[in-house]
Amino acid sequence: MFTEQRTNATANRITVTALALVMATAMAGCASKDRMTTGSVSRSTPGAATNVASMTEPQLRSAADSLGRAYTKNTKDKATALRYASVLQMTGRADQSLAVMRKLAIDHPQDRQVLAAYGKALAAAGELQPALDAVRRAQTPEYPDWRLQSAEGAILDQLGQKDAARALYTRALNLQPNEPSILSNMGMSYLLEGNLKSAEHYMRQAAQSPGADSRVRQNLALVVGLQGRFGEAEQLARHELSPDQAEANVAYLRAMLSQQNAWSQLSDKKKKRN
Fold first, then answer.
1. Is CATH 1.25.40 correct for 1-34+179-274?
2. Burial readout 116-142 (b: 16 or more C-beta within 10 A, e: otherwise)
3. Positions of the region Disordered (predicted)?
4. Residue 200: CB partners within 8 Å, gap ≥ 6?
5. What are 127-138's pLDDT values in tens digits?
6. Which of 197, 272, 206 has the alpha carbon at shortest distance from 229?
7. Does the structure show a pLDDT above 50 at 162?
8. Which of 21, 16, 92 is nearest to 57 (CA)?
9. Mean pLDDT for the chain?
10. pTM
């Protein structure tokens, strides 16, 4: 029992470290106004020349301003609202993005694309149960959408239902074999429970699959770094980030893991005294 408790505690600390590093990566991207990334699926703005995932912060702010003006002229226009909500999420305005999607879902209550985007906006705002309901409403059992299955799995993972989440990822992969976004979500599922070897297995598959985006490869760098292979992690990160950002992220990870080891040693000493 002691070993199991200690393993779980270590997994929890690894999860905190991983989430903290992801936050630090996003903050570094904003601070340097360099390339910004999204989740495991790149978000392209329909009709736009530039992929949202590759926009700099000034470009995102400009896009948000222009799309905002277009949106106020016709809030029921689906394409404009979807673009606007996506850019708002990229600039960290999750609440505003959710407000746009909530209005769009009212105007288009049967539209699967709108319901799916609404579910993702809810999840980004931390409203997991409503997000789950929205994604499930968008799904049609007789003609299932692998994107919705993967999105539902990601929400279930955040709710702590890892077995149900992985079953959905497996079903999604049956529909869309070797899809990097699904493989990455599966890897994150194992990362959340502290199983780094399985996480790396799926992350590496995802990164090597055609169509893998920047965030997928950054997730692989994260998992490699969490196992103490800092040189390899930095090399992977340098392909996606500026050298300064890659170096800063690995340094941050080293510090976090060092603190984790120090905490573990103090905990062991305390137990021996008792």
1. yes
2. bbbbbbbbbbebbebbbebbebbbeee
3. 35-56
4. 187, 220, 223, 224, 227
5. 999 999 999 988
6. 197
7. yes
8. 92
9. 78
10. 0.71
Residue 214 is given by DSSP the state H
C-alpha 208/C-alpha 205 separation (Å) is: 5
CA distances from 201 to 184, 240, 250 (A): 10, 20, 21
CA of 39: how far to CAs of 50, 93, 150, in Å?
17, 15, 12
The label of the residue with tokens 């000034």 reads 58
Q: Which tokens in the block code for residue 269?
A: 């000493």
Per-residue pLDDT tens over the stretch 204-227: 999 999 888 877 888 899 999 999
Q: Which residue has the higher pLDDT, 7 or 198?
A: 198
**Spatial CA neighbour of 166 closest among 147, 181, 152:** 152
d(CA 143, CA 202): 26
The encoded tokens of residue 110 equal: 């049967």
Closest CA to 59 of 83, 94, 91: 91
Per-residue pLDDT tens for 56-69? 667 888 899 999 99
Looking at residue 145, its amino acid is D
| DSSP secondary structure letters along 41-103 | S--B-TT-SSBGGG--HHHHHHHHHHHHHHHHH-TT-HHHHHHHHHHHHHTT-HHHHHHHHHH
- Residues in a beta bridge with 262: none
Alpha-helix residue ranges (DSSP H) falling in the chain: 2-32, 57-73, 78-90, 94-107, 112-124, 128-138, 146-158, 162-175, 180-192, 196-208, 214-226, 230-238, 243-273
3-state secondary structure of 36: coil
CA 10 vs. chain centroid, Å, equals 22
